[in-house]
Protein backbone atom coordinates (compact mmCIF):
# COMPACT_ATOMS: atom_id res chain seq x y z
CA UNK A 1 0.00 0.00 0.00
CA UNK A 2 1.20 3.51 -0.77
CA UNK A 3 -0.20 6.87 0.25
CA UNK A 4 -0.81 9.84 -2.02
CA UNK A 5 -1.30 12.36 0.75
CA UNK A 6 -4.30 11.01 2.66
CA UNK A 7 -5.35 8.57 -0.10
CA UNK A 8 -4.49 4.92 0.44
CA UNK A 9 -3.61 3.19 -2.81
CA UNK A 10 -3.46 -0.60 -3.26
CA UNK A 11 -2.07 -2.12 -6.46
CA UNK A 12 0.33 -0.86 -9.06
CA UNK A 13 -1.47 0.74 -11.99
CA UNK A 14 -2.23 4.40 -12.55
CA UNK A 15 -4.45 5.01 -15.57
CA UNK A 16 -2.47 7.81 -17.21
CA UNK A 17 -4.11 11.00 -18.44
CA UNK A 18 -4.59 11.13 -22.21
CA UNK A 19 -6.36 14.08 -23.81
CA UNK A 20 -9.10 12.86 -26.14
CA UNK A 21 -9.05 9.37 -24.62
CA UNK A 22 -9.37 9.11 -20.83
CA UNK A 23 -12.84 10.60 -20.54
CA UNK A 24 -15.23 9.44 -17.83
CA UNK A 25 -16.63 6.60 -19.98
CA UNK A 26 -13.12 5.32 -20.75
CA UNK A 27 -11.99 5.49 -17.13
CA UNK A 28 -15.16 3.86 -15.83
CA UNK A 29 -14.67 0.86 -18.09
CA UNK A 30 -10.90 0.52 -17.68
CA UNK A 31 -11.05 0.93 -13.90
CA UNK A 32 -12.77 -2.47 -13.64
CA UNK A 33 -9.57 -4.15 -14.80
CA UNK A 34 -7.77 -3.21 -11.59
CA UNK A 35 -6.76 0.43 -11.93
CA UNK A 36 -5.56 1.75 -8.56
CA UNK A 37 -5.78 5.44 -9.30
CA UNK A 38 -6.77 7.46 -12.38
CA UNK A 39 -6.48 10.95 -13.79
CA UNK A 40 -8.76 12.93 -16.14
CA UNK A 41 -7.71 14.39 -19.45
CA UNK A 42 -5.85 17.66 -18.96
CA UNK A 43 -8.15 20.57 -18.13
CA UNK A 44 -7.33 24.18 -18.96
CA UNK A 45 -7.30 26.53 -15.97
CA UNK A 46 -8.40 29.42 -18.19
CA UNK A 47 -11.17 27.30 -19.71
CA UNK A 48 -12.59 26.87 -16.21
CA UNK A 49 -12.05 30.51 -15.29
CA UNK A 50 -13.87 31.65 -18.48
CA UNK A 51 -16.67 29.16 -17.73
CA UNK A 52 -16.13 27.31 -21.02
CA UNK A 53 -18.87 24.69 -21.36
CA UNK A 54 -16.66 22.06 -23.04
CA UNK A 55 -13.92 22.45 -20.43
CA UNK A 56 -16.46 21.87 -17.69
CA UNK A 57 -17.47 18.51 -19.18
CA UNK A 58 -14.01 17.15 -18.28
CA UNK A 59 -14.60 17.72 -14.60
CA UNK A 60 -18.17 16.45 -14.58
CA UNK A 61 -18.11 12.91 -13.22
CA UNK A 62 -19.66 11.05 -10.28
CA UNK A 63 -17.84 9.65 -7.28
CA UNK A 64 -15.75 6.62 -8.14
CA UNK A 65 -14.40 3.88 -5.90
CA UNK A 66 -11.09 4.41 -7.70
CA UNK A 67 -9.40 7.61 -6.52
CA UNK A 68 -9.70 10.10 -9.38
CA UNK A 69 -7.56 13.16 -9.93
CA UNK A 70 -8.34 16.15 -12.13
CA UNK A 71 -5.31 17.18 -14.13
CA UNK A 72 -5.03 20.94 -14.55
CA UNK A 73 -2.79 22.79 -16.95
CA UNK A 74 -1.83 26.43 -16.88
CA UNK A 75 1.14 28.72 -16.40
CA UNK A 76 0.40 30.67 -13.24
CA UNK A 77 0.01 29.67 -9.61
CA UNK A 78 -2.87 32.15 -9.12
CA UNK A 79 -4.95 30.96 -12.07
CA UNK A 80 -4.35 27.29 -11.32
CA UNK A 81 -5.48 27.88 -7.74
CA UNK A 82 -8.59 29.71 -9.02
CA UNK A 83 -9.30 26.80 -11.38
CA UNK A 84 -8.93 24.30 -8.54
CA UNK A 85 -11.47 26.23 -6.47
CA UNK A 86 -13.90 26.18 -9.41
CA UNK A 87 -13.50 22.39 -9.60
CA UNK A 88 -14.17 22.16 -5.86
CA UNK A 89 -17.37 24.16 -6.27
CA UNK A 90 -18.63 22.18 -9.29
CA UNK A 91 -17.77 18.63 -8.29
CA UNK A 92 -17.31 17.09 -4.87
CA UNK A 93 -16.24 13.73 -6.36
CA UNK A 94 -12.67 14.84 -7.09
CA UNK A 95 -10.16 13.02 -4.88
CA UNK A 96 -6.98 14.90 -5.82
CA UNK A 97 -5.44 17.30 -8.32
CA UNK A 98 -2.56 16.71 -10.71
CA UNK A 99 -0.62 19.44 -12.49
CA UNK A 100 0.46 18.90 -16.07
CA UNK A 101 4.17 19.73 -16.34
CA UNK A 102 4.81 17.35 -19.22
CA UNK A 103 2.65 18.21 -22.22
CA UNK A 104 4.99 18.86 -25.18
CA UNK A 105 2.36 20.16 -27.59
CA UNK A 106 3.32 23.56 -28.98
CA UNK A 107 -0.16 25.03 -28.46
CA UNK A 108 0.33 24.40 -24.72
CA UNK A 109 4.06 25.07 -24.25
CA UNK A 110 3.97 28.38 -26.12
CA UNK A 111 1.71 29.70 -23.35
CA UNK A 112 4.30 28.63 -20.77
CA UNK A 113 2.15 25.69 -19.59
CA UNK A 114 2.74 21.92 -19.78
CA UNK A 115 6.38 20.95 -20.08
CA UNK A 116 7.45 24.59 -20.60
CA UNK A 117 7.15 24.78 -16.81
CA UNK A 118 10.22 22.53 -16.52
CA UNK A 119 12.32 25.45 -17.72
CA UNK A 120 11.47 27.20 -14.46
CA UNK A 121 11.72 24.72 -11.55
CA UNK A 122 10.97 27.42 -8.98
CA UNK A 123 7.66 28.19 -10.71
CA UNK A 124 6.83 24.46 -10.56
CA UNK A 125 7.26 24.65 -6.78
CA UNK A 126 5.24 27.88 -6.55
CA UNK A 127 2.34 26.23 -8.39
CA UNK A 128 2.24 23.32 -5.94
CA UNK A 129 2.43 25.76 -3.01
CA UNK A 130 -0.46 27.82 -4.40
CA UNK A 131 -2.63 24.74 -4.83
CA UNK A 132 -1.77 23.33 -1.40
CA UNK A 133 -2.79 26.69 0.07
CA UNK A 134 -6.38 26.37 -1.18
CA UNK A 135 -7.16 22.68 -0.58
CA UNK A 136 -6.39 19.83 1.77
CA UNK A 137 -6.71 17.33 -1.06
CA UNK A 138 -3.51 15.74 -2.36
CA UNK A 139 -1.65 17.57 -5.12
CA UNK A 140 0.48 15.62 -7.59
CA UNK A 141 2.52 16.61 -10.63
CA UNK A 142 3.45 14.93 -13.91
CA UNK A 143 6.81 15.89 -15.38
CA UNK A 144 9.33 14.81 -18.03
CA UNK A 145 13.12 14.39 -17.83
CA UNK A 146 13.66 17.95 -19.05
CA UNK A 147 13.12 20.10 -22.11
CA UNK A 148 15.72 18.37 -24.28
CA UNK A 149 18.77 16.12 -23.90
CA UNK A 150 20.92 19.15 -23.08
CA UNK A 151 18.65 20.39 -20.33
CA UNK A 152 17.80 17.32 -18.29
CA UNK A 153 16.70 18.82 -14.96
CA UNK A 154 14.17 16.40 -13.45
CA UNK A 155 16.10 16.20 -10.14
CA UNK A 156 16.00 19.94 -9.65
CA UNK A 157 12.29 20.00 -10.53
CA UNK A 158 11.56 17.10 -8.16
CA UNK A 159 13.33 18.85 -5.28
CA UNK A 160 11.32 22.05 -5.87
CA UNK A 161 8.08 20.05 -6.02
CA UNK A 162 8.92 18.12 -2.85
CA UNK A 163 9.89 21.26 -0.97
CA UNK A 164 6.53 22.72 -1.93
CA UNK A 165 4.69 19.71 -0.47
CA UNK A 166 3.78 17.69 -3.57
CA UNK A 167 2.14 14.35 -2.69
CA UNK A 168 3.28 12.22 -5.65
CA UNK A 169 5.26 12.75 -8.83
CA UNK A 170 4.72 11.04 -12.16
CA UNK A 171 7.59 11.07 -14.61
CA UNK A 172 7.40 10.33 -18.31
CA UNK A 173 10.95 9.19 -19.04
CA UNK A 174 11.33 11.26 -22.19
CA UNK A 175 12.21 14.90 -22.83
CA UNK A 176 9.81 17.44 -24.29
CA UNK A 177 11.67 17.29 -27.60
CA UNK A 178 11.20 13.49 -27.74
CA UNK A 179 7.43 14.06 -27.84
CA UNK A 180 6.00 10.50 -27.68
CA UNK A 181 8.58 8.55 -29.66
CA UNK A 182 11.96 7.00 -29.07
CA UNK A 183 12.89 4.74 -26.21
CA UNK A 184 12.13 6.13 -22.74
CA UNK A 185 15.36 6.49 -20.76
CA UNK A 186 14.69 4.50 -17.59
CA UNK A 187 18.42 3.87 -17.08
CA UNK A 188 18.99 7.60 -16.69
CA UNK A 189 16.61 7.56 -13.73
CA UNK A 190 17.77 4.25 -12.24
CA UNK A 191 16.86 4.16 -8.52
CA UNK A 192 15.22 7.58 -8.77
CA UNK A 193 12.73 6.62 -6.04
CA UNK A 194 15.61 6.30 -3.55
CA UNK A 195 16.34 9.98 -4.02
CA UNK A 196 12.72 10.98 -3.39
CA UNK A 197 10.46 11.43 -0.38
CA UNK A 198 7.09 10.97 -2.10
CA UNK A 199 5.64 8.17 -4.25
CA UNK A 200 6.82 7.94 -7.83
CA UNK A 201 4.73 6.86 -10.84
CA UNK A 202 6.66 5.90 -13.95
CA UNK A 203 5.55 6.36 -17.58
CA UNK A 204 6.84 5.59 -21.06
CA UNK A 205 6.15 2.80 -23.59
CA UNK A 206 4.31 0.49 -21.21
CA UNK A 207 2.83 -2.04 -23.63
CA UNK A 208 3.46 -5.35 -21.84
CA UNK A 209 3.74 -6.70 -18.30
CA UNK A 210 7.50 -6.96 -18.88
CA UNK A 211 7.67 -3.28 -19.81
CA UNK A 212 5.87 -2.38 -16.58
CA UNK A 213 7.99 -4.62 -14.36
CA UNK A 214 11.23 -3.43 -15.95
CA UNK A 215 10.33 0.27 -15.61
CA UNK A 216 9.34 -0.20 -11.97
CA UNK A 217 12.41 -2.30 -11.12
CA UNK A 218 14.89 0.07 -12.71
CA UNK A 219 13.46 3.24 -11.22
CA UNK A 220 12.04 1.85 -7.97
CA UNK A 221 8.69 3.46 -8.82
CA UNK A 222 5.63 2.74 -6.68
CA UNK A 223 3.16 2.87 -9.57
CA UNK A 224 3.28 2.36 -13.31
CA UNK A 225 1.26 4.49 -15.71
CA UNK A 226 -0.69 2.66 -18.38
CA UNK A 227 -1.28 5.02 -21.31
CA UNK A 228 -1.25 4.06 -25.03
CA UNK A 229 -0.51 0.42 -24.20
CA UNK A 230 -3.87 0.09 -22.47
CA UNK A 231 -5.91 1.34 -25.44
CA UNK A 232 -7.47 -1.81 -26.85
CA UNK A 233 -5.68 -3.94 -24.27
CA UNK A 234 -7.47 -3.62 -20.92
CA UNK A 235 -6.05 -6.91 -19.63
CA UNK A 236 -2.62 -5.24 -19.58
CA UNK A 237 -3.86 -3.65 -16.36
CA UNK A 238 -5.17 -6.85 -14.75
CA UNK A 239 -2.06 -8.73 -15.87
CA UNK A 240 0.31 -6.22 -14.23
CA UNK A 241 -1.59 -6.75 -10.98
CA UNK A 242 -1.67 -10.54 -11.48
CA UNK A 243 2.11 -10.53 -11.93
CA UNK A 244 2.67 -8.82 -8.59
CA UNK A 245 0.23 -11.17 -6.86
CA UNK A 246 1.88 -14.24 -8.46
CA UNK A 247 -1.37 -15.01 -10.26
CA UNK A 248 -1.65 -16.52 -13.70
CA UNK A 249 -1.62 -14.06 -16.59
CA UNK A 250 -4.57 -13.92 -19.01
CA UNK A 251 -4.20 -13.90 -22.78
CA UNK A 252 -7.48 -12.63 -24.11
CA UNK A 253 -8.96 -14.54 -27.05
CA UNK A 254 -10.56 -12.84 -30.03
CA UNK A 255 -13.98 -13.43 -28.45
CA UNK A 256 -12.76 -11.70 -25.25
CA UNK A 257 -11.37 -8.75 -27.20
CA UNK A 258 -14.63 -8.39 -29.14
CA UNK A 259 -16.54 -8.36 -25.87
CA UNK A 260 -14.21 -5.76 -24.30
CA UNK A 261 -14.39 -3.64 -27.44
CA UNK A 262 -18.19 -3.65 -27.41
CA UNK A 263 -18.38 -2.98 -23.67
CA UNK A 264 -16.01 0.01 -23.83
CA UNK A 265 -18.00 1.40 -26.77
CA UNK A 266 -21.19 1.22 -24.67
CA UNK A 267 -19.47 3.02 -21.78
CA UNK A 268 -18.28 5.82 -24.07
CA UNK A 269 -21.71 6.09 -25.75
CA UNK A 270 -23.35 6.30 -22.32
CA UNK A 271 -21.12 9.27 -21.59
CA UNK A 272 -20.99 11.10 -24.93
CA UNK A 273 -24.04 9.86 -26.84
CA UNK A 274 -23.93 7.64 -29.91
CA UNK A 275 -22.97 10.29 -32.49
CA UNK A 276 -19.91 11.72 -30.71
CA UNK A 277 -19.11 8.45 -28.93
CA UNK A 278 -18.78 6.44 -32.13
CA UNK A 279 -16.62 9.10 -33.77
CA UNK A 280 -14.25 9.05 -30.79
CA UNK A 281 -14.33 5.27 -30.95
CA UNK A 282 -12.95 5.15 -34.50
CA UNK A 283 -9.50 5.83 -33.01
CA UNK A 284 -9.91 3.29 -30.19
CA UNK A 285 -11.71 0.24 -31.62
CA UNK A 286 -8.98 -0.83 -34.12
CA UNK A 287 -6.45 -1.11 -31.27
CA UNK A 288 -8.31 -4.11 -29.84
CA UNK A 289 -7.34 -6.19 -32.85
CA UNK A 290 -3.74 -5.13 -33.44
CA UNK A 291 -2.36 -8.60 -32.82
CA UNK A 292 -4.94 -10.71 -34.66
CA UNK A 293 -4.26 -12.23 -38.10
CA UNK A 294 -5.76 -10.65 -41.21
CA UNK A 295 -7.07 -7.73 -39.19
CA UNK A 296 -5.95 -5.01 -41.61
CA UNK A 297 -9.33 -4.72 -43.31
CA UNK A 298 -11.12 -4.94 -39.95
CA UNK A 299 -9.02 -2.11 -38.50
CA UNK A 300 -9.58 0.05 -41.52
CA UNK A 301 -13.35 -0.51 -41.40
CA UNK A 302 -13.45 0.30 -37.68
CA UNK A 303 -11.57 3.53 -38.24
CA UNK A 304 -13.91 4.71 -41.01
CA UNK A 305 -17.32 3.07 -40.83
CA UNK A 306 -18.40 3.58 -37.22
CA UNK A 307 -21.46 5.81 -37.11
CA UNK A 308 -23.77 3.78 -34.91
CA UNK A 309 -23.22 1.13 -32.26
CA UNK A 310 -24.83 -1.38 -34.64
CA UNK A 311 -22.04 -0.72 -37.16
CA UNK A 312 -19.53 -1.90 -34.56
CA UNK A 313 -21.53 -5.08 -33.84
CA UNK A 314 -21.92 -5.85 -37.55
CA UNK A 315 -18.24 -5.33 -38.41
CA UNK A 316 -17.03 -7.39 -35.45
CA UNK A 317 -19.52 -10.21 -36.05
CA UNK A 318 -18.48 -10.44 -39.69
CA UNK A 319 -14.80 -10.61 -38.71
CA UNK A 320 -15.48 -13.32 -36.12
CA UNK A 321 -17.42 -15.37 -38.67
CA UNK A 322 -14.54 -15.04 -41.14
CA UNK A 323 -11.98 -15.88 -38.40
CA UNK A 324 -13.81 -19.03 -37.33
CA UNK A 325 -14.15 -20.41 -40.88
C1 LIG B 1 -3.08 10.98 -27.15
C2 LIG B 1 -2.31 11.28 -25.88
C3 LIG B 1 -2.78 12.25 -25.02
C4 LIG B 1 -2.07 12.55 -23.84
N1 LIG B 1 -2.57 13.49 -22.99
C5 LIG B 1 -1.95 13.73 -21.82
C6 LIG B 1 -2.50 14.64 -20.88
O1 LIG B 1 -3.57 15.22 -21.09
N2 LIG B 1 -1.78 14.86 -19.73
C7 LIG B 1 -0.60 14.23 -19.48
O2 LIG B 1 0.00 14.46 -18.42
N3 LIG B 1 -0.07 13.34 -20.34
C8 LIG B 1 -0.72 13.07 -21.49
N4 LIG B 1 -0.21 12.13 -22.34
C9 LIG B 1 0.99 11.38 -21.97
C10 LIG B 1 0.66 10.03 -21.34
O3 LIG B 1 0.02 10.18 -20.09
C11 LIG B 1 1.95 9.17 -21.15
O4 LIG B 1 2.79 9.78 -20.21
C12 LIG B 1 2.71 8.99 -22.46
O5 LIG B 1 1.83 8.59 -23.50
C13 LIG B 1 3.84 7.98 -22.31
O6 LIG B 1 3.35 6.71 -22.02
P1 LIG B 1 3.23 5.56 -23.19
O7 LIG B 1 4.49 5.67 -24.02
O8 LIG B 1 3.12 4.28 -22.38
O9 LIG B 1 1.99 5.89 -23.98
C14 LIG B 1 -0.88 11.86 -23.53
C15 LIG B 1 -0.42 10.88 -24.41
C16 LIG B 1 -1.11 10.58 -25.58
C17 LIG B 1 -0.57 9.51 -26.49
Q: Shape from CA axes?
A: globular
CATH topology annotation of the largest domain = TIM Barrel
What is the assembly state of the chains in this entry? single chain
Catalogue the ligands. Answer: flavin mononucleotide
Helix content: 40-55%
Q: In order across it, which strands form the biggest sheet?
A: 3-4-5-6-7-8-9-10
| Contiguous runs where pLDDT drops below 50 for at least 5 residues | none
Please give the alpha-carbon distance between the first and last residues: 48 Å
> What is the succession of H and E elements?
EEEHEHHEHEHHEHEEHEHHHHH
How many domains in all? 2
Secondary structure: number of strands: 10
Q: What this model shows, in words?
A:
With 325 residues, this protein is of the alpha/beta class. The chain folds into two domains: 2-244, Alpha-Beta Barrel (TIM Barrel); 254-324. It has helices at 24-31, 45-49, 53-58, 77-90, 106-109, 121-134, 154-163, 209-219, 235-244, 254-272, 274-281, 296-304, 309-324, and strands at residues 2-4, 7-9, 13-15, 37-44, 68-73, 96-101, 139-144, 168-172, 200-203, 223-226. The strands form two sheets. It has an eight-stranded parallel beta barrel with strand order 3-4-5-6-7-8-9-10, surrounded by six helices. It has a two-stranded antiparallel sheet with strand order 1-2. Strand 7 (139-144), helix 7 (154-163) and strand 8 (168-172) form a beta-alpha-beta unit. The longest helix has 19 residues, at 254-272. It is globular. The N and C termini lie far apart (48 Å). The model has no long low-confidence stretch (mean pLDDT 97). Residues 16-21, 41-42, 71, 100, 102-103, 142, 172, 180, 203-206, 225, 227-229 line the site of flavin mononucleotide.
Amino acid sequence: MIKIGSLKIEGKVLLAPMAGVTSFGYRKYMNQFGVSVCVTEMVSDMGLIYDNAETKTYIDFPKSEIPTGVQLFGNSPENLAKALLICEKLNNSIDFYDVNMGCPVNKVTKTGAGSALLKNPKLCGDIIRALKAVTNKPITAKIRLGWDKKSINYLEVIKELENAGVDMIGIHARTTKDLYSGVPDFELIRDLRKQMNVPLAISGNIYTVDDAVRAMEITGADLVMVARGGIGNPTLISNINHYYKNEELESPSLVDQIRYCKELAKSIIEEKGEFVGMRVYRAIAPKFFASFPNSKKLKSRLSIELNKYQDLEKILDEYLEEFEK
